[in-house]
Specification:
The protein folds into two domains: 8-329, ANL, N-terminal domain (Rossmann fold, 3-Layer(aba) Sandwich); 335-430, GMP Synthetase, Chain A, domain 3 (2-Layer Sandwich). The longest helix is centred in the first third of the chain and has 22 residues, at 15-36. By secondary structure, it is α/β, with parallel strands linked by helices. The protein is globular, with a radius of gyration of 22 Å. The strands form four sheets. An eleven-stranded mixed β-sheet has the order 4-3-5-6-7-8-9-13-12-11-10. The relative contact order is 0.12. It has twelve helices and 19 strands. The chain has helices at 8-11, 15-36, 38-47, 68-73, 107-123, 142-154, 166-175, 185-197, 219-229, 342-351, 386-404, 432-435, and strands spanning 89-92, 102-105, 131-134, 157-159, 180-183, 209-213, 232-239, 244-250, 257-259, 264-269, 282-289, 300-309, 321-322, 333-335, 338-340, 358-365, 368-376, 409-413, 428-430. Bound molecules: adenosine-5'-diphosphate (ADP) and zinc ion (ZN). Adenosine-5'-diphosphate (ADP) is lined by residues 93-97, 213-216, 235-240, 302, 304, 324-325, 328.
Length: 436
Amino acid sequence: MLKRYFQPEIETMSPEDIKALQSKLLVQQVRHVYENVAYYRAKMDEAGVTPDDIHGVEDLYKLPFLSKSDLRDAYPYGLLAKPLSECVRIQSTSGTTGRRVVSFYTQHDVDLWEECCARAIVATGGSSEDVCQVAYGYGLFTGGAGLNGGSHKVGCLTLPMSSGNTERQIQFMRDLHSTILCCTPSYAAYIGETLKDMGLTPDDIDLKAGIFGAEPWTEEMRHDIEKSLGIKAYDIYGLTETSGPGVAFECEAQDGMHINEDHFLAEIIDPDTGEVLPEGSKGELVFTSLDKEAFPLLRYRTRDICVLHREKCSCGRTLIKMSKPMGRSDDMMIIRGVNVFPSQIETVLLKEGYAANYLIEVDRVHNSDTLDISVELLPDQFSDTMRDIEIREKKLAAAIKTMLGISPKVHLVSPKSIARSEGKAVRVIDKRKLHD
Ligand code: ADP
Ligand code: ZN
Protein backbone atom coordinates (compact mmCIF):
# COMPACT_ATOMS: atom_id res chain seq x y z
CA MET A 1 0.00 0.00 0.00
CA LEU A 2 1.15 3.53 -0.72
CA LYS A 3 2.64 5.19 2.35
CA ARG A 4 0.89 8.41 3.25
CA TYR A 5 3.54 9.61 5.67
CA PHE A 6 7.26 8.96 5.88
CA GLN A 7 7.25 9.10 9.70
CA PRO A 8 3.59 8.87 10.80
CA GLU A 9 4.48 8.79 14.50
CA ILE A 10 5.85 12.32 14.18
CA GLU A 11 3.76 13.74 11.35
CA THR A 12 0.45 12.93 13.04
CA MET A 13 1.52 13.40 16.67
CA SER A 14 -0.96 15.31 18.84
CA PRO A 15 -0.14 19.01 19.34
CA GLU A 16 0.30 18.38 23.09
CA ASP A 17 2.84 15.63 22.46
CA ILE A 18 4.69 17.76 19.91
CA LYS A 19 4.93 20.57 22.45
CA ALA A 20 6.23 18.21 25.11
CA LEU A 21 8.81 16.82 22.70
CA GLN A 22 9.88 20.32 21.66
CA SER A 23 10.25 21.40 25.27
CA LYS A 24 12.43 18.43 26.11
CA LEU A 25 14.62 18.95 23.05
CA LEU A 26 14.87 22.71 23.54
CA VAL A 27 16.28 22.32 27.06
CA GLN A 28 18.97 19.98 25.71
CA GLN A 29 19.71 22.11 22.65
CA VAL A 30 20.17 25.30 24.69
CA ARG A 31 22.58 23.51 27.01
CA HIS A 32 24.50 22.10 24.06
CA VAL A 33 24.83 25.56 22.48
CA TYR A 34 25.73 27.30 25.74
CA GLU A 35 28.45 24.81 26.50
CA ASN A 36 29.94 24.65 23.00
CA VAL A 37 29.37 27.95 21.19
CA ALA A 38 31.24 30.84 22.82
CA TYR A 39 29.66 33.34 20.42
CA TYR A 40 26.12 32.52 21.55
CA ARG A 41 27.11 32.03 25.19
CA ALA A 42 28.31 35.65 25.18
CA LYS A 43 24.92 36.73 23.81
CA MET A 44 23.09 34.76 26.50
CA ASP A 45 25.36 36.18 29.20
CA GLU A 46 24.67 39.66 27.92
CA ALA A 47 20.93 39.00 28.03
CA GLY A 48 21.31 37.59 31.56
CA VAL A 49 19.91 34.17 30.69
CA THR A 50 21.42 30.77 31.47
CA PRO A 51 20.36 27.26 30.42
CA ASP A 52 18.77 26.89 33.88
CA ASP A 53 16.20 29.53 32.89
CA ILE A 54 14.93 27.43 30.00
CA HIS A 55 12.44 24.76 31.07
CA GLY A 56 10.41 24.47 27.88
CA VAL A 57 9.03 26.26 24.83
CA GLU A 58 7.30 28.82 27.05
CA ASP A 59 10.76 30.15 27.96
CA LEU A 60 11.91 30.57 24.38
CA TYR A 61 11.28 34.33 24.40
CA LYS A 62 14.09 34.75 26.95
CA LEU A 63 16.75 33.75 24.43
CA PRO A 64 18.49 36.35 22.26
CA PHE A 65 17.94 36.40 18.49
CA LEU A 66 20.54 35.45 15.93
CA SER A 67 20.60 37.18 12.57
CA LYS A 68 22.41 36.79 9.30
CA SER A 69 24.90 39.45 10.39
CA ASP A 70 25.81 37.22 13.37
CA LEU A 71 26.48 34.41 10.91
CA ARG A 72 28.71 36.66 8.89
CA ASP A 73 30.55 37.90 11.99
CA ALA A 74 31.06 34.37 13.19
CA TYR A 75 32.14 33.10 9.74
CA PRO A 76 33.36 30.46 9.30
CA TYR A 77 33.64 28.51 12.59
CA GLY A 78 32.20 30.85 15.23
CA LEU A 79 28.86 29.07 15.59
CA LEU A 80 30.15 25.56 15.27
CA ALA A 81 29.08 23.36 18.21
CA LYS A 82 31.05 20.21 17.42
CA PRO A 83 34.73 19.57 16.65
CA LEU A 84 35.40 19.61 12.91
CA SER A 85 36.53 16.00 13.19
CA GLU A 86 32.90 15.06 13.94
CA CYS A 87 31.53 17.03 10.98
CA VAL A 88 31.06 15.33 7.63
CA ARG A 89 29.67 18.07 5.37
CA ILE A 90 29.69 21.78 4.62
CA GLN A 91 27.04 23.54 2.54
CA SER A 92 26.70 27.22 1.75
CA THR A 93 23.99 29.73 0.88
CA SER A 94 23.54 30.69 -2.72
CA GLY A 95 24.49 34.23 -1.73
CA THR A 96 21.29 35.82 -3.06
CA THR A 97 21.81 38.69 -0.65
CA GLY A 98 25.29 39.65 0.52
CA ARG A 99 28.10 37.39 1.62
CA ARG A 100 27.74 33.66 1.74
CA VAL A 101 27.22 31.84 5.01
CA VAL A 102 28.37 28.29 5.61
CA SER A 103 26.66 25.57 7.57
CA PHE A 104 28.15 22.36 9.02
CA TYR A 105 26.65 18.90 9.46
CA THR A 106 27.48 15.80 11.44
CA GLN A 107 26.19 12.50 10.05
CA HIS A 108 23.25 12.83 12.47
CA ASP A 109 22.49 16.27 10.99
CA VAL A 110 22.64 14.96 7.41
CA ASP A 111 20.25 12.12 8.33
CA LEU A 112 17.84 14.48 10.02
CA TRP A 113 17.85 16.80 7.00
CA GLU A 114 17.38 13.98 4.51
CA GLU A 115 14.48 12.62 6.56
CA CYS A 116 12.80 16.02 6.36
CA CYS A 117 13.16 15.91 2.56
CA ALA A 118 11.88 12.34 2.51
CA ARG A 119 8.73 13.49 4.33
CA ALA A 120 8.25 16.09 1.59
CA ILE A 121 8.59 13.49 -1.16
CA VAL A 122 6.15 11.05 0.48
CA ALA A 123 3.69 13.92 0.99
CA THR A 124 3.45 14.28 -2.80
CA GLY A 125 2.62 10.58 -3.14
CA GLY A 126 6.25 9.55 -3.71
CA SER A 127 7.39 5.99 -3.01
CA SER A 128 10.02 3.44 -4.00
CA GLU A 129 8.08 3.04 -7.27
CA ASP A 130 9.06 6.56 -8.35
CA VAL A 131 11.86 7.96 -10.45
CA CYS A 132 12.89 11.22 -8.85
CA GLN A 133 14.72 13.68 -11.09
CA VAL A 134 16.67 16.19 -9.01
CA ALA A 135 17.30 19.29 -11.10
CA TYR A 136 18.30 21.59 -8.26
CA GLY A 137 21.94 22.57 -8.44
CA TYR A 138 24.33 20.11 -6.79
CA GLY A 139 27.38 21.38 -4.94
CA LEU A 140 27.50 23.85 -2.08
CA PHE A 141 23.86 24.85 -2.67
CA THR A 142 21.58 22.78 -0.45
CA GLY A 143 18.85 22.07 -3.03
CA GLY A 144 20.53 19.20 -4.87
CA ALA A 145 22.05 17.49 -1.84
CA GLY A 146 18.88 17.70 0.28
CA LEU A 147 16.43 16.28 -2.24
CA ASN A 148 18.97 13.72 -3.42
CA GLY A 149 19.29 12.42 0.13
CA GLY A 150 15.53 12.51 0.69
CA SER A 151 14.93 10.59 -2.52
CA HIS A 152 17.35 7.86 -1.38
CA LYS A 153 15.63 7.60 2.02
CA VAL A 154 12.26 7.10 0.31
CA GLY A 155 13.85 4.54 -1.99
CA CYS A 156 13.01 6.34 -5.22
CA LEU A 157 15.23 5.69 -8.19
CA THR A 158 17.18 8.94 -8.05
CA LEU A 159 18.26 10.81 -11.16
CA PRO A 160 20.87 13.35 -9.99
CA MET A 161 20.71 15.69 -12.99
CA SER A 162 21.63 18.95 -11.23
CA SER A 163 20.38 22.07 -13.00
CA GLY A 164 20.97 23.15 -16.59
CA ASN A 165 21.10 21.51 -19.99
CA THR A 166 17.35 21.66 -20.27
CA GLU A 167 16.81 19.64 -23.43
CA ARG A 168 18.86 16.85 -21.94
CA GLN A 169 16.74 17.05 -18.76
CA ILE A 170 13.69 16.41 -20.93
CA GLN A 171 15.40 13.67 -22.89
CA PHE A 172 16.30 11.79 -19.68
CA MET A 173 12.88 12.50 -18.24
CA ARG A 174 11.38 10.68 -21.24
CA ASP A 175 13.92 7.87 -21.55
CA LEU A 176 13.98 7.04 -17.85
CA HIS A 177 10.32 7.83 -17.09
CA SER A 178 10.84 10.35 -14.30
CA THR A 179 7.71 10.74 -12.20
CA ILE A 180 8.83 13.41 -9.71
CA LEU A 181 10.77 16.56 -10.58
CA CYS A 182 12.62 18.62 -7.96
CA CYS A 183 13.98 22.08 -8.87
CA THR A 184 13.33 25.78 -8.38
CA PRO A 185 9.90 26.94 -9.60
CA SER A 186 11.50 29.28 -12.13
CA TYR A 187 13.47 26.37 -13.57
CA ALA A 188 10.32 24.22 -13.64
CA ALA A 189 8.61 26.93 -15.67
CA TYR A 190 11.56 26.97 -18.05
CA ILE A 191 11.47 23.18 -18.43
CA GLY A 192 7.75 23.46 -19.24
CA GLU A 193 8.46 26.07 -21.87
CA THR A 194 11.26 24.00 -23.39
CA LEU A 195 9.02 20.94 -23.53
CA LYS A 196 6.60 22.92 -25.68
CA ASP A 197 9.41 24.31 -27.85
CA MET A 198 10.53 20.75 -28.51
CA GLY A 199 7.08 20.06 -29.93
CA LEU A 200 6.11 17.87 -26.96
CA THR A 201 3.16 17.91 -24.58
CA PRO A 202 2.69 16.72 -20.99
CA ASP A 203 1.39 13.46 -22.48
CA ASP A 204 4.89 12.73 -23.74
CA ILE A 205 6.33 12.58 -20.21
CA ASP A 206 5.47 10.57 -17.09
CA LEU A 207 5.86 13.29 -14.46
CA LYS A 208 3.09 13.39 -11.87
CA ALA A 209 4.48 15.68 -9.18
CA GLY A 210 7.00 18.45 -8.71
CA ILE A 211 8.70 19.66 -5.52
CA PHE A 212 9.65 23.27 -6.04
CA GLY A 213 11.19 25.78 -3.67
CA ALA A 214 14.23 27.85 -2.73
CA GLU A 215 12.61 31.06 -4.00
CA PRO A 216 9.24 32.77 -3.74
CA TRP A 217 6.59 31.81 -6.31
CA THR A 218 2.96 32.73 -6.65
CA GLU A 219 -0.20 30.63 -6.87
CA GLU A 220 -0.59 31.85 -10.45
CA MET A 221 2.84 30.47 -11.28
CA ARG A 222 1.87 27.17 -9.68
CA HIS A 223 -1.10 26.86 -12.03
CA ASP A 224 1.04 27.65 -15.07
CA ILE A 225 3.66 25.05 -14.13
CA GLU A 226 1.02 22.42 -13.36
CA LYS A 227 -0.50 22.95 -16.77
CA SER A 228 2.73 23.04 -18.75
CA LEU A 229 4.09 19.82 -17.19
CA GLY A 230 0.83 18.03 -16.43
CA ILE A 231 1.65 17.60 -12.74
CA LYS A 232 0.70 18.67 -9.23
CA ALA A 233 3.25 21.22 -8.00
CA TYR A 234 4.19 21.25 -4.31
CA ASP A 235 6.09 23.88 -2.37
CA ILE A 236 9.08 23.15 -0.16
CA TYR A 237 10.87 25.61 2.11
CA GLY A 238 14.18 25.80 3.87
CA LEU A 239 17.36 27.71 4.23
CA THR A 240 20.99 26.74 4.49
CA GLU A 241 21.22 28.05 8.04
CA THR A 242 18.63 25.55 9.27
CA SER A 243 19.93 22.64 7.06
CA GLY A 244 18.43 23.34 3.65
CA PRO A 245 15.11 22.47 1.98
CA GLY A 246 12.69 20.38 4.00
CA VAL A 247 12.19 22.62 7.01
CA ALA A 248 8.61 22.79 5.74
CA PHE A 249 6.78 20.99 2.94
CA GLU A 250 3.43 20.98 1.25
CA CYS A 251 0.94 18.11 1.38
CA GLU A 252 -1.94 17.10 -0.90
CA ALA A 253 -3.98 20.06 0.42
CA GLN A 254 -1.52 22.40 -1.38
CA ASP A 255 -2.42 25.07 1.08
CA GLY A 256 0.65 26.03 3.10
CA MET A 257 3.63 23.99 4.24
CA HIS A 258 3.83 21.73 7.29
CA ILE A 259 6.83 22.61 9.44
CA ASN A 260 8.89 19.68 10.72
CA GLU A 261 8.28 20.71 14.28
CA ASP A 262 10.19 17.87 15.88
CA HIS A 263 13.35 19.52 14.52
CA PHE A 264 12.44 23.18 14.08
CA LEU A 265 10.54 25.39 16.47
CA ALA A 266 8.88 28.31 14.65
CA GLU A 267 7.87 31.74 15.90
CA ILE A 268 6.50 34.82 14.15
CA ILE A 269 7.80 38.18 15.32
CA ASP A 270 7.27 41.79 14.47
CA PRO A 271 10.34 42.51 12.31
CA ASP A 272 10.67 46.04 13.70
CA THR A 273 10.26 45.45 17.43
CA GLY A 274 11.16 41.76 17.80
CA GLU A 275 7.91 41.19 19.72
CA VAL A 276 6.49 37.65 19.42
CA LEU A 277 3.14 37.76 17.61
CA PRO A 278 0.20 35.40 18.15
CA GLU A 279 -0.50 32.56 15.72
CA GLY A 280 -2.24 33.80 12.59
CA SER A 281 -0.33 37.12 12.48
CA LYS A 282 1.85 38.05 9.57
CA GLY A 283 5.45 38.69 10.48
CA GLU A 284 9.03 37.50 10.30
CA LEU A 285 9.63 33.80 10.68
CA VAL A 286 12.14 32.80 13.37
CA PHE A 287 13.50 29.26 13.75
CA THR A 288 15.14 27.44 16.62
CA SER A 289 16.74 24.14 15.76
CA LEU A 290 15.90 21.49 18.33
CA ASP A 291 18.30 18.63 17.73
CA LYS A 292 21.06 19.69 15.41
CA GLU A 293 24.57 18.86 16.53
CA ALA A 294 27.08 20.81 14.44
CA PHE A 295 25.28 24.02 13.57
CA PRO A 296 22.42 24.53 16.01
CA LEU A 297 20.87 27.99 15.70
CA LEU A 298 18.64 29.40 18.42
CA ARG A 299 16.02 31.99 17.43
CA TYR A 300 17.41 32.59 13.97
CA ARG A 301 15.69 35.45 12.14
CA THR A 302 15.00 34.27 8.59
CA ARG A 303 13.75 37.66 7.28
CA ASP A 304 11.04 35.68 5.49
CA ILE A 305 7.57 37.13 5.95
CA CYS A 306 4.68 34.70 6.43
CA VAL A 307 1.85 33.49 8.68
CA LEU A 308 1.63 30.35 10.90
CA HIS A 309 -1.58 28.34 11.22
CA ARG A 310 -2.25 25.34 13.39
CA GLU A 311 -5.39 23.68 12.16
CA LYS A 312 -6.59 20.24 11.24
CA CYS A 313 -5.27 19.48 7.79
CA SER A 314 -7.15 17.24 5.38
CA CYS A 315 -3.96 15.19 4.90
CA GLY A 316 -4.10 14.09 8.55
CA ARG A 317 -0.82 15.76 9.54
CA THR A 318 -0.87 17.72 12.75
CA LEU A 319 2.32 19.70 12.13
CA ILE A 320 1.79 23.45 12.11
CA LYS A 321 1.61 25.10 8.68
CA MET A 322 3.34 28.20 7.34
CA SER A 323 1.96 30.20 4.44
CA LYS A 324 4.05 30.71 1.32
CA PRO A 325 6.59 33.37 2.24
CA MET A 326 5.61 36.40 0.21
CA GLY A 327 9.21 37.49 0.04
CA ARG A 328 12.00 38.33 2.40
CA SER A 329 11.89 41.53 4.34
CA ASP A 330 15.02 42.49 2.39
CA ASP A 331 13.34 41.70 -0.98
CA MET A 332 10.91 44.45 -0.19
CA MET A 333 11.57 47.61 -2.16
CA ILE A 334 10.46 51.00 -1.01
CA ILE A 335 9.51 52.87 -4.16
CA ARG A 336 8.23 56.40 -3.80
CA GLY A 337 7.52 55.61 -0.19
CA VAL A 338 5.43 52.54 -0.97
CA ASN A 339 6.38 48.99 0.06
CA VAL A 340 6.58 46.75 -2.99
CA PHE A 341 7.26 43.01 -3.17
CA PRO A 342 8.18 41.45 -6.54
CA SER A 343 5.57 38.74 -5.84
CA GLN A 344 2.78 41.36 -6.01
CA ILE A 345 3.88 42.34 -9.51
CA GLU A 346 4.14 38.70 -10.54
CA THR A 347 0.58 38.05 -9.38
CA VAL A 348 -0.75 40.83 -11.63
CA LEU A 349 1.29 39.71 -14.66
CA LEU A 350 0.04 36.15 -14.49
CA LYS A 351 -3.55 37.22 -13.85
CA GLU A 352 -3.34 39.41 -16.95
CA GLY A 353 -2.32 36.41 -19.00
CA TYR A 354 1.46 36.85 -19.26
CA ALA A 355 4.10 34.33 -18.21
CA ALA A 356 6.48 34.80 -15.28
CA ASN A 357 9.26 36.13 -17.50
CA TYR A 358 9.86 39.65 -16.30
CA LEU A 359 12.48 42.01 -14.97
CA ILE A 360 11.87 44.83 -12.52
CA GLU A 361 14.28 47.78 -12.67
CA VAL A 362 14.23 50.49 -10.05
CA ASP A 363 16.29 53.66 -10.27
CA ARG A 364 16.36 57.21 -8.99
CA VAL A 365 16.27 60.02 -11.53
CA HIS A 366 16.16 63.67 -10.40
CA ASN A 367 15.47 62.54 -6.84
CA SER A 368 12.44 60.57 -7.86
CA ASP A 369 12.17 56.76 -7.92
CA THR A 370 11.45 55.12 -11.25
CA LEU A 371 9.90 51.67 -11.70
CA ASP A 372 10.34 49.97 -15.07
CA ILE A 373 8.93 46.51 -15.67
CA SER A 374 9.88 44.56 -18.76
CA VAL A 375 7.50 41.71 -19.55
CA GLU A 376 7.71 39.24 -22.39
CA LEU A 377 4.93 39.09 -24.91
CA LEU A 378 3.59 35.62 -25.51
CA PRO A 379 4.40 34.25 -28.99
CA ASP A 380 0.82 34.75 -30.24
CA GLN A 381 0.81 38.39 -29.10
CA PHE A 382 4.06 39.16 -30.86
CA SER A 383 2.37 39.75 -34.21
CA ASP A 384 0.16 42.47 -32.72
CA THR A 385 0.52 45.94 -34.19
CA MET A 386 2.51 48.61 -32.33
CA ARG A 387 -0.76 50.22 -31.40
CA ASP A 388 -2.11 46.97 -29.91
CA ILE A 389 1.07 46.60 -27.93
CA GLU A 390 0.81 50.14 -26.57
CA ILE A 391 -2.77 49.45 -25.49
CA ARG A 392 -1.59 46.28 -23.75
CA GLU A 393 1.20 48.19 -21.98
CA LYS A 394 -1.22 50.79 -20.69
CA LYS A 395 -3.67 48.14 -19.49
CA LEU A 396 -0.95 46.24 -17.65
CA ALA A 397 0.45 49.43 -16.09
CA ALA A 398 -3.03 50.32 -14.84
CA ALA A 399 -3.52 46.85 -13.31
CA ILE A 400 -0.16 47.10 -11.53
CA LYS A 401 -1.01 50.57 -10.30
CA THR A 402 -4.23 49.22 -8.80
CA MET A 403 -2.23 46.56 -6.93
CA LEU A 404 0.68 48.73 -5.74
CA GLY A 405 -0.68 52.24 -5.65
CA ILE A 406 2.16 53.58 -7.78
CA SER A 407 2.50 53.76 -11.56
CA PRO A 408 5.15 51.71 -13.30
CA LYS A 409 6.42 52.03 -16.83
CA VAL A 410 5.67 48.76 -18.57
CA HIS A 411 7.72 47.57 -21.53
CA LEU A 412 6.44 44.59 -23.47
CA VAL A 413 9.42 42.89 -25.05
CA SER A 414 9.80 40.09 -27.55
CA PRO A 415 9.33 36.45 -26.46
CA LYS A 416 12.45 34.80 -24.95
CA SER A 417 14.36 38.09 -24.65
CA ILE A 418 14.60 37.89 -20.84
CA ALA A 419 17.21 35.44 -19.53
CA ARG A 420 15.79 32.20 -18.09
CA SER A 421 16.94 30.84 -14.76
CA GLU A 422 18.22 27.35 -14.02
CA GLY A 423 18.41 28.08 -10.30
CA LYS A 424 17.05 31.02 -8.35
CA ALA A 425 15.68 33.67 -10.70
CA VAL A 426 16.96 37.26 -10.61
CA ARG A 427 13.90 39.42 -11.09
CA VAL A 428 14.93 42.77 -9.62
CA ILE A 429 17.71 45.20 -10.43
CA ASP A 430 17.74 48.09 -7.99
CA LYS A 431 20.10 50.63 -9.50
CA ARG A 432 19.55 53.04 -6.62
CA LYS A 433 21.90 50.89 -4.57
CA LEU A 434 24.68 51.70 -7.04
CA HIS A 435 24.28 55.42 -6.42
CA ASP A 436 24.32 55.10 -2.60
P1 ADP B 1 20.34 32.62 0.02
O1 ADP B 1 20.04 33.40 1.25
O2 ADP B 1 21.70 32.90 -0.51
O3 ADP B 1 19.28 32.65 -1.03
P2 ADP B 1 19.50 29.90 0.65
O4 ADP B 1 19.74 29.13 -0.59
O5 ADP B 1 19.76 29.23 1.92
O6 ADP B 1 20.42 31.15 0.56
O7 ADP B 1 18.03 30.45 0.57
C1 ADP B 1 17.09 30.43 1.62
C2 ADP B 1 16.01 31.43 1.33
O8 ADP B 1 15.32 31.10 0.12
C3 ADP B 1 14.92 31.49 2.36
O9 ADP B 1 15.29 32.28 3.46
C4 ADP B 1 13.78 32.09 1.58
O10 ADP B 1 13.89 33.49 1.49
C5 ADP B 1 13.95 31.51 0.21
N1 ADP B 1 13.07 30.35 0.04
C6 ADP B 1 13.37 29.05 0.20
N2 ADP B 1 12.30 28.25 -0.07
C7 ADP B 1 11.28 29.09 -0.39
C8 ADP B 1 9.91 28.89 -0.76
N3 ADP B 1 9.38 27.69 -0.87
N4 ADP B 1 9.17 30.00 -1.00
C9 ADP B 1 9.69 31.24 -0.89
N5 ADP B 1 10.96 31.48 -0.57
C10 ADP B 1 11.76 30.43 -0.31
ZN1 ZN C 1 -1.53 18.71 5.23
